[in-house]
Design goal:
Order of helices and strands: HHH
Number of strands: 0
Helix content: over 70%
Strand content: under 5%
Number of helices: 3
Largest sheet: none
Structural class: mainly alpha
């Protein structure tokens, strides 16, 4: 940690990552369980990956991108608030940050 004043603020961000990973595992487990119950066995084979596997991969990339756009402002803006970094977030991240701040208020 570079700055003692932002220990808690960094902790919030990384704790949110653990929450997301737990949520992902729950969704994956539930989906596999429901597919097996329906008689469908999902196997991810890298060499002969079917279209279903590619769709799952695209959904995964979309989820990760969305999650980081939603949670990165928690870390970056808290660091910026104490003068640690000055960043141009971009329109989408700024919109999500504004929504986050409204939700917290």
């Amino acid at each position: 940690m570079l700055e003692k004043r932002i220990v808690y603020r960094s902790f919030k961000f990384f704790l949110l990552q653990a929450v997301a990973i737990t949520f992902e595992d729950l969704v994956i487990y539930t989906a596999k369980h429901l597919l097996r119950r329906g008689g469908i066995e999902f196997k991810s084979e890298r060499a002969g990956e079917a279209w279903a596997g590619k769709i799952v991969r695209v959904i995964g990339y979309f989820w990760v991108t969305l999650w980081f756009c939603a949670t990165l402002p928690v870390w970056i803006d808290e660091s910026s608030a104490i003068g640690f970094a000055s960043t141009d977030r971009g329109a989408i991240t700024q919109f999500l940050l504004d929504m986050w701040k409204r939700y917290r208020a």
